[in-house]
Every structure is written in C-alpha cells, then in structure tokens.
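How it folds
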Amino acid sequence: MKISVRGIYSTALIKFFLEKNFEVTNLSYKQALRFNIFDRSTPDIIIHHTLDRTGIKVIGNAEEVIKAMKETFWDSIFVKKENFYYIFFGKESKKILDEYRSKVLKTIEGHHLYRKDFSDIVDFAEILDCENITLKIKEYIVEKIKEMKAIKRYHRKPDGTYLKYYEIIQDVKIVNGKIYVKTFRPIKSEGVYDGLNIPREVGDYAITEYIEDNWFFIIKYYNKDHQLKGEYININTPIEITKSIYYLDLAIDVINVNNEKKVVDEDELNTYYNLGNIGEKLYKKVLEIKDELLR
C-alpha cells in the first residue's frame, strides 16, 4: 500500500506514515529531497488538505490507514463518504502533528494551528531563534482581532458539516498565556432556544466567553432587561483562536436553567461514536468533561 501526501500537513504525515511502516510515493519535489524518497509509482491512497485547511481528505481503500490515524490523532473526527474519508483535526491532534514535523524540521509550538491563517508568519518565526515566539504570535493575533468589529465562530459538527456565527467583539486579551475573547450576539427572531426549551424573544442577547484550549464554552442568554434566562454549555475539542474561533463540536452539551443542570444530546454523541466519527479515547474524554460540568 503506497500513500501520496500533499499539502500543509504533509511533512508531519509523511513522517507519521514512515514510522508506522507505510510506504509513501509521488511526493512533491521539496518533500522528495527532504525525505530522500523519489518513488514516482502510482499511489493506492491520495491525501491532501481540505479547502479550508482544517483537515485532510483521504481517497482510496484506506481502512488500515484510518485505523492507525484514529489511534494517534485521537481528538479528530472521521467522516466516511463512499470511498474516501474526511479527517478534521482537533487541537490536540495538531500538537501531535507538530511533534512529528519537529522530528524533520524546526517547528514552533502551534505550527499546524497557525499555518491555516498565518502561513508567512509561521515560516518567518521558524527562521528566527527567538524565545516566547508563540506568545508573540498570540499577541499579534489579539491586535488583529482588536481591529475587527465581529469575529466568525466555526462550529464543526461530528458529521463534518459546520455552522458559522458572526459575533460582536466585546473584549479580547491574553490571560495566563491564553487568548480570551468575549462576544455579544443579539437575538433577532422568536422561537425556542435549542436544548434550553425556553422562549427566544427579539431583544434577547447572548454573551459568550472563549478561552483557547478550553474543552467547553458557556453561552449566557439574557432578556432585554438584562436578566439571565439560561446557560448553554457547549462541549468541544480545545478551542482554537486565530482570525476566527474554531473547534469540533462533540454533540453532547449541558444546560443550566434556574440553577438546574441537565445533559442534552447524549444519544447523539453515542450515535457518532458507534458510527466511528468519534474515537474511543475522545468519547471517554467527553464523558469526563460532562461529569465535571455537572459537578
């Protein structure tokens, strides 16, 4: 079985596959020189990054490859579509990709996190011999977010689809080495809040605080008189903050209405686990977080 890998994750993945005793072929000229592999034979499996650079597409009969990747890139989601897979990497998986790449090239902390939006800055940072370079990149991101009126939040679901929200920025800063963003979102339609089962009214608003690396965030809903109506605690892979807020949603959540906490959508989590979209280690981690939030 021969694998061809291209794109922003290629160095890390080539190193990973070689260590797992897979063959690689048809590399780019740069990677062929880097790994001293000049085989140009036709690959059985083709891998390249997705258009939005948040993961990879794996084309071919790749069950053995997918099994190996699930064991290592444990906080990712795996979506099968006919004869190919989409793999969307969680932040912990991006750290693991950093580790594999660092065996080949100088790699800053957060390389695969920042590569998506700040490719040139990452390249320059890895040339420098500078202490605290990752913190300096975070400071740069904070200044860029301060220039924005609103920030996009990408809510990637376990089936691979995503929802996109635009939220007004109220505050952004670094707290204990982590980027913190506070947002405001006005409610413009009537109905019922999903999960909370309480009325959604025009004039309500949502306040959300995001801290990078957190496995959850809390959306607080208020009425027009600034009274708290309820809280929705979203469970997700560690939050990533660059030009946008990004995470992989993990289906199950916790709500808090009138100081009473309740779990919602646990059956949905179980469905994705049984389908194989969510691996066992990630599944157990999610249940641990759920129990912590209930306490």
Observations:
- Residues 280-294 form the longest helix (15 residues).
- The chain is about 30% helix and 35% strand.
- The mean pLDDT is 96.
